[in-house]
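Our consortium's second objective concerns turning raw sequence data into structural hypotheses that experimental partners can test. To show how far this objective has progressed, the report includes one record in full. It was chosen at random from the queue rather than selected for favorable results. The single chain below, 123 residues long, was entered without modification.
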Amino acid sequence: MQDNTQPAQGAAQEASPTPGQPAAAASAATGPVATPAATQEQVAQAVGRDFGSYDKDGDGRLDATEFAAWMGALRKAAEPNFQPGSAEAATWANQAFASADTDKSASVNKQELTVFLTPKQPG
């Protein structure tokens, strides 16, 4: 049984998402280290569970600020030395947002986020 009381930052545990190489989302954590999700279905479950925590205005989409907050929390969980408020973090978050916003609507919906966070299979 999943522990859904974990904070949203448990949604991913791999290195930072960058355009073309998004982080893998993780299934619900039962301890300090989450198991990375390997399939789009697992990522979709994590996104569905945690999306509302970051969609502050409840419109069903993440704007750049909401997206940056979530991705910053995920990267901080994976890289404790990461500084979410730094200039480097802002540049990184903007690049990640541009990559995730595939329809160029200036927002990221659940489907776009799921695709962005799903590990890419080599080959």
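The partners drew two points from this record. Residues 34-117 form a domain with the Recoverin; domain 1 fold (CATH 1.10.238.10). Confidence is low (pLDDT under 50) at residues 1-34. Both points have been shared with the crystallography group to help prioritize constructs.
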